[in-house]
Write a structure and sequence with these properties.
heterodimer; A: two-stranded antiparallel ribbon; 4 strands; 3% strand; B: alpha/beta; six-stranded mixed sheet; five-stranded antiparallel sheet
């Protein structure tokens, strides 16, 4: 039981990173993207390939994974971000599937469907990270960093621009905001968070397989954002927790032989439908921008 | 007075349908110029092509002698919309398009997005609150809570935050009661006089627009059919019959 709970905390952390990225893309700029799974896979495979085949330490693979994911985000963002709504969703979905297919078939680099196993443990202060508690600390440390960073960006000039783009593109561009530039930025940031999540996933599982990075992963990241509250980073972390709790609930209460694994997809669908009907803004809702009191204005009026 | 905006023989089409057919006009510095015409005459298309939202098929548009958009050999080359603010052109888009989920203050902040100095932004906001008291009283409210007329005021104030040389307005009177439209035009006249902002208005409410303008253009089916002093247009028999309902 305790083990299960620790497992959920670990996975919630990994998915929280992906959801934070998804929130930057979907919650802040309003782009419906469905390719977090693709960037997640890229992060995982970078860590796996570099550490198994080239003997790099885990820590050194992180920047490579993050930067490569961001670059891929830019690469897919530039042509597709001209599209709107469902067209964009389909284009991004297609991109994630292309990545997975490449990974599945590039045998010489990725070992194809067999994946790469025996990824070495990360060393910290001369000792390998092994226990679940250590993993929790490691993963949530990264979650906090990304959260703080994204929160900071959201409060900056860039954050304002992203919100304006989401609200009205024509108005935003007539304010002098370069829409494409900010959309691509958000996309790259979101992608790099998913890439980081991928690194941690590869490290924790110590193996990677193409079957892990299916479309459902992107859907889960989106679910976490919608469930928690779009445009609210704390809320999507909560969303990640709840979704993980739900997906492991059958195993946790020992009902896994009664409730089939596929039932959780039905459950996710049900949750999304209910949320859309009763609380479309998510559990916590969008975070309101807090304004500092100004010296000249009667701000508290 | 010098020529601020020059539109030289431009044509724009949507697929096979041509919306503008060889339109030429000019806006002199310091003036209020209005372009009137019925629905579908091509007024909004003209404004969109000025701000680079519609590519030109022929002709060119220049602002202070600098080319904003040009069609050369069938290829359109223009300044992207987001760079116009830096050149001193601000647009109040059709249907107001205020950022509904942002507060009034945030909307004004967005208008000054290209202004980097906080003190300047703060000062301009205060000026706007003074000029549009309704906005000053409700600065912390979301702009979706404003009425149509108030939203229009906000859209104008937001555009003024960039301290433009040329203010473009796309149907500021759309869907508003005549009294409110009158109020908006009065404000525009003050802005024009005191802040030396040149104003180009596209409007269906011909009477109100012409009354507060220096120059007027009448557009029909993608062509300019009349161009004259606004006062003269108000007396013109053709205009009176077609647009003023007399």
């Amino acid at each position: 039981m305790l083990n299960f709970f620790l497992l959920i905390v670990i996975y919630a952390g990994i998915y929280a990173l992906m959801a934070l990225g998804q929130n930057m893309i979907t919650g802040y700029v309003g782009i419906l993207s469905l390719c977090q799974a693709g960037f997640f896979a890229v992060g995982s495979y970078v860590t796996a390939i570099l550490s198994v085949k080239l003997g790099w330490s885990f820590w050194a693979t992180i920047p490579v994974a993050v930067i490569l994911s961001a670059l891929l985000g830019v690469l897919i963002g530039l042509p597709t971000l001209r599209l709107k709504g469902d067209y964009l969703a389909i284009a991004t979905l297609g991109f994630a599937e292309i990545l997975r297919t490449i990974i599945n078939n590039w045998d010489s680099l990725t070992n194809g469907p067999n994946g790469i196993s025996r990824i070495p443990k990360a060393m910290l202060f001369g000792a390998p990270i092994k226990s679940k508690y250590a993993y929790i600390l490691l993963i949530w440390f990264f979650v906090l960093i990304v959260w703080a960073l994204f929160e900071r960006i959201a409060k900056s000039r860039m954050g304002r621009a992203l919100e304006a783009v989401r609200e009205d593109e024509i108005a935003a561009s007539s304010m002098g905001i370069n829409i494409t530039k900010y959309k691509v930025w958000a996309f790259a940031l979101g992608a790099s968070a998913a890439g980081l999540a991928g690194c941690l996933q590869a490290l924790y599982i110590s193996s990677v397989m193409p079957g892990t990075y299916v479309f459902m992963v992107s859907i889960m990241a989106l679910c976490m954002v919608v469930l928690g509250g779009m445009g609210n980073f704390a809320a999507v972390i909560l969303g990640a927790f709840i979704i993980q709790l739900i997906s492991y609930f059958p195993q946790m209460v020992g009902l896994s032989n009664i409730i089939p694994a596929q039932a959780r997809q039905i459950l996710f669908g049900l949750i999304l439908v209910l949320m859309m009907i009763y609380r479309p803004q998510g559990i916590l809702g969008r975070k309101e921008r807090k304004y500092k009191k100004t010296k000249t204005g009667e701000a508290s009026k | 007075m010098s020529e601020l905006l020059k539109i030289d023989n431009i044509s724009v089409s949507y697929g096979n349908i041509s919306a503008l057919k060889g339109v030429s006009m000019s806006v002199q510095e310091g003036e209020i110029v209005s372009l009137i015409g019925a629905n579908g005459a091509g007024k909004s298309t003209l404004l969109k092509s000025i701000v680079g939202l519609e590519p030109l098929k022929e002709g060119s548009i220049s602002f202070r002698g600098e080319v904003l958009g040009q069609a050369k050999g069938g290829h359109y080359k223009g300044v992207p919309t987001n760079l116009l603010v830096r050149k001193g052109v601000a647009l109040v888009p059709e249907g107001r398009r205020v950022f509904a989920d942002l507060t009034i203050e945030e909307n004004l902040d967005m208008g000054a997005f290209m202004v980097r100095e906080d003190s300047v932004v703060q000062q301009r906001k205060e000026e706007m609150y003074e000029f549009f008291p309704i906005l000053g009283n409700r600065r912390k409210q979301k702009s979706r809570s404003l009425s149509g007329g108030e939203q229009q005021m906000l859209a104008v104030a937001r555009a003024l935050m960039s301290n433009p040389t040329l203010l473009l307005l796309d149907e500021p009177g759309l869907g508003l009661a005549p009294l409110i439209v009158q109020d908006i035009f009065n404000k525009l006249a003050i802005i024009n006089r005191e802040n030396k902002v040149t104003i180009f208005i596209v409007e269906q409410n011909a009477r109100l627009a012409l009354k507060s303008s220096d120059m007027g253009y009448v557009m029909e089916n993608g062509r300019i059919v009349l161009a004259d002093k606004a006062k003269a247009l108000l007396k013109n028999a053709q205009v009176r019959a077609a647009y003023l309902g007399e």
